Amino acid sequence: MRVGLFATCLGDTLFPDAVKATAVLLARLGHDVVFPPGQTCCGQMHVNTGYQREPVPLVRGFAEQFGDPSIEAVVMPSGSCAGSVRHQHGIVAERYGDAALRAGVAAVRTKTYELSEFLVDVAGTTDVGAYFPHRVTYHPTCHSLRMLRVGEKPLRLLRAVEAIDLVELPEADACCGFGGTFAVKNAETSAAMLADKMRHVTGTGADVCTAGDSSCLMHIGGGLSRIQADTRTLHLAQILASTRTQPYVLPDDTDQLEAATR
């Protein structure tokens, strides 16, 4: 299948390894991955902050970049951005766009997927040949859980990973407190929600907390680093892209890997 890869703003600027892992994973599964070079922000942050007219050029750009009929699916390592394309783009186009924009949005939104959705629902697989010998807990992000309703799909993928020790996260469906500008405008509330999330994450004894959104992982990971926790954060795509022949190496394992290869 010819798949268009959408990097997202955070992926492009702060977490490129998650985007690269998505491309590696999809290619390993036999898909033809293309990266439209003119892609920009999906406009989610504008809509979420109440500026619905301003992202019209971004919505139009997304529809143009991924509207090529040869692109059979648009995949992104982000539940929030996929939710924006599938739900918010239609609202923006209907209220402030023209007929061409409405048609373009309608054509693209139906073939847009968050990574776990694509793998399970479209590619029809849960075992992607991954290998990750670490203790892992999974945080279901709000948009993937409540807007896209991906449900157990990420967990089904994780359960099939070879050598993984997957542990349940208490109160997993509770928000981590990020919410984009919510964390800025409501800093005290956000910090309290983050403290609860970190307490549950560290209580699992996991080496890694994973999720399908880099934004939430940035928030959780920042908090964990400030309390010098042993748990680190890693995008779901990076775990699924890790194999026995090309494993993802946690920083603490670097010395052991070097010693083993001497």
TrEMBL record:
Protein name: (Fe-S)-binding protein
InterPro entries given in the database record: Cys_rich_dom
Superkingdom of the source species: Bacteria
Domain annotation Cysteine-rich: ranges: 3-85, 136-220
